[in-house]
Amino acid sequence: MYDSAADLARLLAGIDQTTSDPTRLRERLVPELRRIIEAGRAEAEQRLLRERDGLACARRLCGQMDAVIRAIYDAVVKRLYRSDNPTAAEQIAVVATGGYGRGTLAPGSDIDLLFLLPYKQTAWSESVVEAMLYVLWDLKLKVGHATRSVADCLREGRADMTIRTSLLESRFLFGDRALFDELATRFDREVVDGTAAEFVEAKLRERDTRVSKGGASRYLVEPNVKDGKGGLRDLHTLFWIAKYTFRVREQEELVEAGLFTTEELRLFERCDEFLWRVRCHMHFVTGRAEERLSFGLQPRIAERLGYAARGGLTAVERFMKSYFLIAKDVGDLTAIVCAEMEARHAKRPPVLDRWLGRFKQRFRSTSLEADDFRIDNGRLNVRGDDAFERDPVNLIRLFWLADQHDLPIHPDASRLATRSLSLIGPMVRVDREANRLFLELLTSQNAPETVLRHMNETGVLGRFVPDFGRIVAMMQFNMYHHFTVDEHLIRSLGVLAKIDSGEAKDEHPLAHRLAGTIRNRRALYVAMFLHDIAKGRKDDHSLAGAAVARKLCPRFGLDAAETDTVAWLVEHHLLMSMTAQSRDLSDPKTIETFAKVVQSLERLKLLMILTIADIKAVGPGVWTAWKATLLRTLFYETEVVLSGGHSEIARTDRVRLIQMRLREQLGDWSAEAFDAYAARHYPPYWLKVDAPRQLKNARFVREAEEAGRTVATACETDPFRGVTELTVYSPDHPRLLAILTGACAAAGGNIVDAQIFTTADGFVLDTITLSRAFDRDEDELRRASRIATAIERALKGEIRIADLVADRHPAKDRPVTFQVAPDLAIDNALSARETVLEISGLDRPGLLYELTTALSRLNLNITSAHVATFGEKAVDVFYVTDLTGTKVTQPDRQATIRRAVMAVFEAEAGPRRSASRRAEGGRGRGEAAEPPAASPDAAAGA
């Protein structure tokens, strides 16, 4: 075992007792101290891997740093600036503050030091501090430092809450102990005494600000272990509050103070150790103070922690589930502390909350006081600790009442509910009253998302519905889903409730109107709650989820017809999204196939609403204007089929209304000119392109024609979405798709969206959306112009795109984070005219260019392309024919296509595989990939 103390002692012994040159001292100290620090960290890492104790590792690293700083202090004070008979001014105390003051240190953490002086800085103290800091800086340590007198510390602590918190955690290292004791005594008496309420308010407000910046949910799939909700900083905040309010010094004293029970203290310690273990591993793996548990890190940390695949979950998914359960426990502890602060009047509710509490109590307490519940300071609480034991259904009734009366739940009631989870057994789960209350809560008109989330965090929801309990804290290891499965389900219910109530009416007018016409409202809400409940199982989660629905719906009180509807919705909850994004909606066969599965207008309405809520709840930016347009088009086209040729708005009428709105915006166009322009576009153009883009396209085409240009391009930036739009107008060309994708690939263009349409007179009108490469518009537009010029020159035959792509610099090796097995499905039943190639695999730069080039070399005519990206997974669908215009039916020809497509993925199966989001590439005719996040106005309509 490495002995750093012995090394440090030998180092000090070898330093000249009378040295007076700071530079020579540093030259002597720094190399040896660096070696000692590196050896100590290596030892700490090995013991962490062996002993699996994160808190012990953090304390060990802190102890090693204490010894290093002590050696520096001794060398400076006893060798360099030795004072055998120091005056009162020649006194100093070296104090650890902040995280270092807690006695724990991660490998990449800052070292926070306070150089405490008697009254003011002297030449001697200035020299000592400077010499110590130079050594620490030469060691490449991140040092936060302050040099203050006791009076300075007290004054700064009173004025600044961050400094006050840092002083709260101060720890004496060495020097003049009397100075530190004076600071500690006066700090308690002059700063802390009588200010607990102020401190608690400030710390909780600071926490709210911190977590809102990082994403308010503790279930983000790439969490910040230090500052995220449910992370280490939350535990630190709890201990700060306890130390300040109850004047405790050690965690064990929290039980004596009455803040935690013995079990809750053990939970606190378990959370603390786990989070420290994860954080230390992250710092060791990355070699820096990395706090975000990214997708790239998660598999490596899971392996170091010893997780293995089990029960349908991968090792990394099991690790992340453990992480999120710990984050949930941290949330429970936070609620406990808040409740205790309120009980002891350390934190009073805001004035508005107190007024609302009195208002609610006056008008709503009558129905509650007679039962097992009461209103306590404007919040719903139980009347006694036996409320749940006396009647376990009260565990469900608590949340039902909170929703019915629009009341927050008192933390004491939440705490008691968590302690009483064992009361929810088989008898409660089948209890008719309990299920009636739960169904009413689930389908409430009062937007039940908040109450259901609280129900989940207390553990009641997972206990009452064990199938839901299986997916609590479960993450899916991919780049598409932003939240854990349980959080996604609860968020989707929140989106559904907003559509239903009209709160999202402006954003989703069609869905809101449909919600008012459906007959199966209860079935829709239950299906929303269950649609992903079978995630993590070996079977397809849609089919397994339908089986779960058939089991649970009768228990909830749904009749046979409602149960069938819920099961159908769960089984097909991905159908509408996949059809809209990866099929040619102008092909009657697509609509016919989709309609055969849906079978009724009621199901179509339900599926439309459920699909929108599901997509929106995936994460920020996933719902876009392009998806809204595609879903709306699929809905209207299918409505015609299911209604026997009748629709609320016939297809021709919809096209005419769209054209009329555009005509009104083009006031300087003659009627003849507009009619001629409108006749050039097929109906899919009018139905699939949003109004702002239609207006831009009309003006762009007119300007090109007036200038006598048959090939034209235009570029503009969109600051709101952070993208650049490139519009191309050109005669149709057999290799147009390859030219567009190749020009973008050669220039490193990251295509995130494209809309490509052919006109009736043989032209194409393409809008390509690229992610920005430069912050300044001038630089970004210059880059886009180079891409546009390359496209124009290629279309005119002046250059070969293949040459440009061949000249591009190869990408650097990229680490493999995700594995997606490539696949090709060849289907001749999905379209009446074309063969459909559905290609899926790991997304990477240049993928679309290589796929379209491979298909062109096989003399396949790509009539339509539909590209969707789900995080790291690309799903590209091409409608193709042979050069004779016929389907590809010969087995040997299909085998050739398969080999060519697989070769594209195999060429990149080595070190250059990427976990990046969709980069260089292109889109095909007709449909296109999902664009980046659009403005609310642009995404409205579905």
Overall description:
- It catalyses: [protein-PII]-uridylyl-L-tyrosine + H2O = [protein-PII]-L-tyrosine + UMP + H(+); [protein-PII]-L-tyrosine + UTP = [protein-PII]-uridylyl-L-tyrosine + diphosphate.
- Residues 929-942 have a biased composition (Low complexity).
- InterPro entries: ACT-like_dom_sf, ACT_dom, HD/PDEase_dom, HD_domain, NT_sf, PII_UdlTrfase/GS_AdlTrfase, Polymerase_NTP_transf_dom, UTase/UR.
- The protein is of the alpha+beta class.
- Among the domains are: 4-193, Beta Polymerase, domain 2; 197-343, Nucleotidyltransferases  domain 2 (Four Helix Bundle (Hemerythrin (Met), subunit A)).
- The chain is 56% helix and 10% strand.
- It is built from 43 helices and 14 strands.
- Strand 13 and strand 14 (873-882) form a beta hairpin.
- Helix 2 packs antiparallel against helix 3 (54-80) and helix 32 packs antiparallel against helix 33 (625-642).
- Residues 350-366 and 911-939 have low confidence and may be disordered.
